[in-house]
Specification:
Purple Acid Phosphatase, chain A, domain 2; disordered N terminus
């Protein structure tokens, strides 16, 4: 299985026995002190077809993404070190609009070069591994995508059903490196790769009956003996799997910490979680994880963000003792391509490399056209001008798309018989962002770029299991966006608390309810219980009957909410599915499949009618004029200040 890989096109990858022989240290010197060698291991991960620093949904430049910018850091990092090796940790064939253009519009035939692969070929990658998203478009697409790669890829825990490996589980490459005394050494670098075994669930339609995915640690135990028999000087695990604590039960999605316990692995490059290690708060207080030094059970490890946001740098101090190279010390740095100032401004820390941009120029320009072209139509206008006061089509379309996405996935689980609800919020609702910050898509053709107008954030789909009681508390927390209205007052009372983020105003589809704003909020602005006896959510029902607070439900939401974002009670209780796709990708697929959508609000929630004579107002965009939703009792009453228009609710 071991292969002697030589890349004649790159000086950094040239190796040979002649070099090793001429560089051998005299025996007397070798006996006196060990040879010392510094090796810099560089990592990219979760690039997701982000080459150009551009947000295709916003149709604007974006300094926070792009391999073209990461490449600038790669060049700098290589210039700083005598020896360096570059690896990729998977999820490179899917994820951005450029990737969707290739998969859905252009196609990828045998002999074609995928633009992501073309960009990566322009850099000195030694090896890569597969991520879960490599399987999203089926095995033919994967085979065509990998065929033009000028660097090898490995994956040890995926095989064809007849038992043959999908690709090499591991390889050994010879690398000519220079020690601190200036002498050359040829080191054998062993490389083994892994992918989350959940690919069989996430891409069942593409993989069922064709591939078998096994537990990451079990696969390592199976293949490491053969790899170690090839006598590598250093073994690097390309683990497209994240870092999580807890007892190992097998088939973990995030298994890097468990993998680090195995003898024979020297360095672990991680990914998949789209987080930064060391330093990310998610990795604090996990036994076996050193979140400052960057170590898993004492072994150097790194996870450099996503979409090219960081370059992973693992600096190894190697010493040769008794004929074997060992890691004597190490330093880990996830180096960013940008920084964010306290006032949320983006400051670039890398320039885009022209040679990388050139590899995808034609496909980038074609993607811009693709994003601007209609992919479907909406029979009704979609806007969010009144999303905070009545059920709204801009939220409805998100809920419908989330349900359509999770239904087939949940049908494969033990929760397949539980009712599916969907939680979504109006992201663009004015507020501090100003009177232009609203969704407004007219009826007619809808382009992919319009989806960012509906779903602003790059969240991923997640599903939680909750009880009826937790559904009520979830909605109580959401209802904190409203100020308390005193029915005895005769003066004007603003309805919306401007300090409450609209993205925390979740509407849950699949149940019906009313919100009584004459009651105090049950939760404070931070999600803490403020008024234990208060209940704004009234008439909460499922399937036409009062909700059973002990019944169990599935709620489709996003990773922000499921991980505790917004401090919603119950949302972090039981995550039953961490899907691999973005919420807005789910919306795009929904539109493409439906061809014509008609996202009319179904009226599953409303404000409880207010007594006559109470003056309750809210502000929205002046562009809302003439677009009052049917059934909403409201009227424009003049200037709302700061460019907004003021409306009054009628009882």
């Amino acid at each position: 299985m071991a292969r002697d890989i030589r890349f004649n096109r790159r000086d950094t990858l040239k190796a040979g026995a002649a070099i090793a022989a001429s560089a051998a240290l005299p025996a007397s010197l070798a006996a006196q002190s060990p040879a010392k060698l510094k090796l810099r291991v560089l990592e990219t991960t979760d690039l997701h077809v982000n080459v150009v620093p551009y947000d295709y949904f916003r149709d604007a430049a974006d300094d926070t993404v792009g391999l073209a910018k990461t490449a600038n850091l790669i060049k700098i990092a290589q210039a700083e070190a005598r020896n360096s090796l570059l690896f990729d940790n998977g999820d490179f064939l899917q994820g951005s609009s450029l990737g969707d253009y290739v998969a859905y519009k252009k196609g990828l035939k045998a002999g074609d070069t995928h633009p992501m692969v073309a960009a990566m070929n322009s850099l000195p990658y030694v090896c890569g591994t597969l991520g879960n998203h490599e399987f999203n478009y089926g095995l033919d697409f994967l085979e065509n995508g990998l065929a033009k790669s000028e660097f090898p890829l490995v994956c040890a825990n995926v095989a064809k059903t007849e038992g043959a490996p999908l690709i090499d589980p591991w390889i050994v490459v010879d690398q000519s490196l220079e020690d601190e005394a200036g002498s050359k050494h040829v080191l054998k670098i062993g490389i083994i790769g892994f992918v989350p075994p959940q690919i069989m669930q996430w891409d069942k339609a593409n993989l069922d009956g064709k591939l078998v995915a096994t537990d990451i640690v079990d696969a390592a135990r199976k293949h490491l003996p053969d790899l170690l028999a090839a006598k590598p000087d250093l073994v690097i695990a390309l683990c497209h799997s994240g870092i999580a604590g807890g007892e190992r039960k097998g088939m973990e999605e995030n298994a890097a910490l468990h993998l680090s316990k195995l003898d024979g692995i020297d360095v672990i490059l991680t990914g998949h979680q789209h987080l930064v290690f060391p330093g990310g708060k998610a990795f604090d207080d996990i036994p076996g994880v050193d979140n400052k030094k960057g170590a898993l059970n004492g072994k150097p490890a790194c996870q450099p963000g996503f979409w090219g946001s960081h370059l992973g740098i693992v600096d190894l101090d190697l010493e040769k003792r008794d004929g074997a190279w060992k890691v004597a010390d190490f330093k880990v740095e996830p180096r960013p391509i940008y920084e964010r100032t306290p006032d949320r401004k983006i400051v670039p820390k890398a320039n885009a490399e022209a040679n990388v941009l050139a590899t995808v120029k034609a496909d980038h320009e074609a993607t811009l056209v693709y994003m601007r072209e209609p992919v479907g139509a909406t029979a009704s206008p979609i806007n969010s001008y009144f999303a905070l006061v009545t059920d709204d089509p801009s939220v409805q379309i998100v809920s419908e798309a989330q349900v359509a996405y999770v239904q087939p996935l949940m049908a494969q689980t033990r929760w397949k018989d539980l009712p599916i609800l969907s939680a979504a919020a109006p992201f663009k609702s004015g507020g501090r962002a100003g009177p232009a910050f609203f969704t407004d898509i007219p009826a007619g053709p809808i382009a992919i770029k319009n989806v960012a107008d509906i779903y602003l954030y790059p969240n991923t789909v997640q599903v939680v299991k909750v009880t009826g009681a937790q559904v009520r508390e979830w909605l109580e927390r959401s209802a904190g966006i409203f100020n308390r209205i005193d029915p005895a007052k005769t003066e004007e009372q603003p309805l919306i608390d401007p300090g409450f983020p609209a993205f925390n105003f979740d509407v849950i589809d699949g149940v019906t309810y009313k919100i009584d704003v004459t009651q105090p909020s049950r939760y404070d602005g931070n999600g803490g219980l403020a008024n234990a006896s208060a209940h704004r959510i009234v008439d909460l029902a499922f399937d036409g009957k009062p909700i059973d607070e002990k019944a169990e439900f599935i709620v489709a939401t996003n990773n922000y909410r499921a991980s505790g974002g917004g401090n919603f009670p119950g949302t972090k209780t039981t995550v039953v599915l961490e899907a691999p796709d973005l919420n807005r990708d789910a919306i795009v697929r929904y539109i493409i499949e439906k061809k014509t959508i008609e996202p009319k609000a179904d009226g599953n929630w409303a404000l409880k009618p207010l007594p006559e004579g109470v003056i309750v107002t809210f502000v929205t965009s002046p562009a809302a004029a003439g677009k009052l939703p049917e059934g909403l009792k409201a009227e424009a009453v003049g200037d709302g200040g700061e460019g907004f228009a003021k409306y009054r609710l009628r009882g």
